[in-house]
Specification:
Layout: H1 12-22, H2 26-30, E1 33-39, E2 47-48, H3 50-62, E3 76-78, E4 81-86, E5 94-101, E6 107-116
Parallel strand pairs: 1-6
Antiparallel strand pairs: 1-2, 3-4, 4-5, 5-6
């Protein structure tokens, strides 16, 4: 079994996601999610569970997309939950994730909204 670096701060997940995605490592990306995590992707649908998320990323990463780091917005933390977000480099909407602190102190994604845009006519 591969040993993956753990996200010891909520903001670490974004960096680890970029590193693992650019390496084509769907297992590594899936390891950033809790077993019962839910991802709002593909657009208009949901992918639930780490295994399904792994399968989704395997398909996406097969096309060898290149991800660039995005500067995180300030993280909101309440107990063992945190809300992380980043503005995409292309300026189209935002990305947001709810992450949970694990018993070992690391953080994993619970809910992932990888892209959304404000309704037409609204600036946010």
């Amino acid at each position: 079994m591969t040993h993956y670096e753990k996200a010891m701060r909520p903001e670490d997940i974004t960096r680890l996601f970029v590193e693992r995605s650019n390496a084509g490592d769907a297992d590594g990306v899936a390891a950033l999610y809790e077993p019962g995590a839910v991802m709002a992707y593909p657009p208009g649908s949901q992918t639930a569970g780490r295994d399904a998320i792994r399968e989704l990323w395997a398909k996406v990463l097969a096309a060898r997309p290149r991800f660039e780091p995005e500067e995180p917005l300030p993280t909101l933390i309440s107990g063992d939950l945190a809300l992380t977000s980043t503005p995409p480099r292309d300026g189209a909407g935002a990305r947001a994730q709810v992450v949970r602190r694990q018993p070992d102190g690391s953080w994993l994604r619970v809910l992932d909204q990888p892209e959304f845009t404000p309704p037409s006519g609204q600036d946010g």
